[in-house]
Amino acid sequence: MRIIRLDEQSRQNILADLLKRDPNNYTSYEGTVQAIVNDVRCRKDEAVFEYTRKFDGAELTADTIRVTDGEIEEALTLVEPGLLEVMKKSMKNIREYHEKQKQYSWFDSKPDGTILGQKVTPLSSVGVYVPGGKAAYPSSVLMNIIPAEVAGVPKIVMVTPPGKDGKVNPVTLIAAHLAGATEVYKVGGAQAVAALAFGTESIPRVNKIVGPGNIFVALAKKAVYGHVSIDSIAGPSEILVLADDSANPRFVAADLLSQAEHDELASAILVTTSMELAKKVSEEVDGFVENLSRKEILKKSLENYGYILVADTMEDAIATANEIASEHLEIVTRNPFEVMTKIQNAGAIFMGEYSSEPLGDYFAGPNHVLPTNGTAKFFSPLGVDDYIKKSSIIYYSREALEPVHKDIEAFAEAEHLTAHANSIRVRFE
Length: 429
Hints:
By secondary structure, the chain is α/β, with parallel strands linked by helices. The protein is built from 18 helices and 14 strands. The chain has helices spanning 8-19, 30-43, 45-56, 69-78, 81-99, 138-151, 170-179, 189-198, 215-224, 249-260, 275-289, 295-305, 314-324, 336-340, 357-362, 398-401, 405-414, 418-425; strands spanning 3-5, 106-109, 114-122, 125-129, 155-160, 183-186, 208-210, 229-230, 238-243, 267-272, 306-310, 328-332, 348-351, 388-396. The chain has a 6-stranded parallel β-sheet, sandwiched between helices. The longest helix has 19 residues, at 81-99. The N and C termini lie far apart (78 Å).
């Protein structure tokens, strides 16, 4: 990996480089995606079946697009029992963590006859997109569905691309069944997002769409935003390791590669105060790459967006981490808890040499759907809050309104909204 002395110029260059990965930069695909979205909105099932035939090579009809109970039972026989047990353990941790995020309605009553409050209501329906085809991502299924189930969403609709045989990957399907999906449809790509946003004869319209996908899925979510809500426009995966000279270079190298293997746009960055650690990590990375299965992807992603940055002080290193605002941040220092208190921007923070990033991906419990491309400066991980909505509650008695009604009328008159003022005034004529 390339080693760079960190200064203001190098920091700005790297930030600019990382921003090139933002899905919003891929405007050349937007026309294609919008055309698919419009087509599905107009022709509904007919368009969905055509695109599924074209992009996935699968022949579907209104009778076969929805996963049946029989298909779930068949999938159960195909999933290795050991993996099933691991998924159940993971689910327990994920559910327990997200249960602590639940919010409840509240009311504040005062002696003057004023009641103010907030009513918390789960969304009535959500759509969960899960990448599919040959690949299986049961962890993404659990992370997207379980918080919705905890929030109390009654209708959780999952969509995922089928294989050419018209079936859903059995591991993906069983994860959905265990997590609490109420319906599963065999459709992927921009056409699936459009179907969830507008509804078809076979696929119900939902209120919100969540879940990761390729650039076409990301841009389709962007295109339908406003018709429905979405979680985010997810970019490529990223990891930043913040380390001092106490870090184990072999562990750090392995953790950097855990994200670099996702795809050629993934970023892996080490920020350290130790040149000696920087050199050792670089050597360890080279050794690992030669023996890992996704060797070519690793080489490309490290060449494109892999950096080892050597800072003069830990304060400079922390400032850089906050500026990059990485999706995953590992702190491997002598006192990681102290450093953590100075971190303002990160999707998920992993502390200590035994808290590697895959722990969060699969098992610990916090959600692995995280803000990318610097959006951790203003976005949070996916959670129960994403599956609820809030309504304000306002009640004033006559006795509570009377002493303030002239103030409200004056405020309305100042904005030249005389009907507003009149609405208050008539109650005291």
